[in-house]
Amino acid sequence: MIFDKDMNISSIYFPLPKRFFIQYFVVFLWFNNLHELFMRFSSLFVITLLFFVAFYQYVLCQTLGAEPPRLVIGIMVDGLQQKHLDLLWGYFDPAGFKRITAEGVRIPHVRYNIVSAGSTSDIATVMTGSVPFYHGVAGDIIYNRSVDKIRNSLYDDQQIGIGTPLMLSSYNLLSSTIVDELSMAFPYKSKSYAVAIGANEAIMLGGHAANGVVWIDDLTHKWVTTAYYKNGLCKSADDMNVLGDFKNISTRVWRPMYAINTYLSSAKESKKSDFEINPLDLKSKNHKATILNNTPSANSLVANLGLRIVTDEQMGMDNTPDALMLQFTVRTPQEKFFSLQSVEKEDMYLRLDRDIQNLLQKIDAKVGLDKTLVFLFANQTDVHSPTELGENNIPAGYFSANRSIALLNTYLMAIYGQEPWVMGYYGKNIFLNKSKIDEKKVSYDAIQKSVIDFMPQFEGVQAAYASLDVLAMGGDSNTEMARLRNSSHKNSLGDVVITLKPGWLELDDDFRPVGESNAIVSTTPLYFYGMKLKPRTVNESYLVIDIATTLARFMAIPAPNANIGKPIKELFESN
Q: Hey, what CATH class is 397-501 in?
């Protein structure tokens, strides 16, 4: 198990303050020895002790302060970067992003202690307070050795989609999430929903026990879900589908909000006329899906449905905490840069700012932001893409495995015979054909070492490691080795794992990036707002696994069962 140097057992397993456990321990000892106390001391002393315990309980409650939040709102923004927020600060409305970032608690030094492999594992890590080594979700897509196929990491052939052919569930997420713990702490009382643009993001935000989990289908242009969740498609989402509200929002043509020459990127792009984008345009000639999920319409759909659920389900109306998890995006169609280098991306931020402004205003009017806890975070994204680095003569590139694995197979055939020694590959994991190795009585260790020696010869590959060596890695959580071990789970780990050089990103066969950060230190903006928290900046360094622990303490519920994080203590200090 990998811990930070200041992590201790109590902060790992218990979201409540140590004084709670001291109190309970004292009371336990007192009851356990009640008879002895009566025998040894006078009744006056016992009465005094009872008074002391009652008074201690009262003082403790006063010290802990306010009640738990009535509503917790998680806002995950795909592609969000702190640098983008800083650049657009002067353009944001005071009641949108600025309300959270200027009036909330900013925690700038929050690191992902896992290797970037997509939003699925990033969100799972945040929601469980753990890492793939324990929670099991190592990426968006994995190679499944048992069926010799590349599949969605959440694929579940025991589930059917509702409104979608996708067969997905959170079954492969092996840990409870903060939403699960909330549902178990207040069964039949607490309500929790996840609304997202993407399927995997929705399921990881909702965990196993949410009342409803929905996402956008960019083929049918409807809200959809999976039968894994017993309540199916929630009424609010179904109403939007049936009554045409989804269609009305999804068909809005995207044009710039302001004059084109007022955008930061207009001079660089030499744009003299407005852009016009239809969300229902196809992603490509050979693809039936539309670009809807990378337009402002997708964000508006998420915000709109989130507000409807709060109203329809009467969330935040009693003293039992409820949770609403939302996923937005600032990614534009076919974008080549991770930095803020297009008018479309700027406009995407500004329109999302409007959606967040409307969301906060409506929640404030209905529930009260003083009774609501909002937290904002993002997935892992590099500041610059390989394309941008290359344009500035900085070594970088995209690693495509097809040619490399084909050459690796040829190399192994030359040494060990004309057989398919490599069974499969995905996401830096190389899977050897173990049945063929056994059949031909070839040394597994020898062929594994041959792969480890051969792969670093490819441009862009930094190193290669044996699977057992990866699982045995440890040390400082700041190192790439520790992050690599954290990011691996025995169920999806290859026989050999490669790493890439700085500035390089992997593309799969469909030209999708496999993770979007190759930085040794990968961070996310993190903000907490509401609950009468006073504006401040927390300068201590934290990990994303600390978010779930912190939320658990706010709601006075157990932390997820694989949690290894610690509470962000500054949030609980006197404001």
A: alpha beta
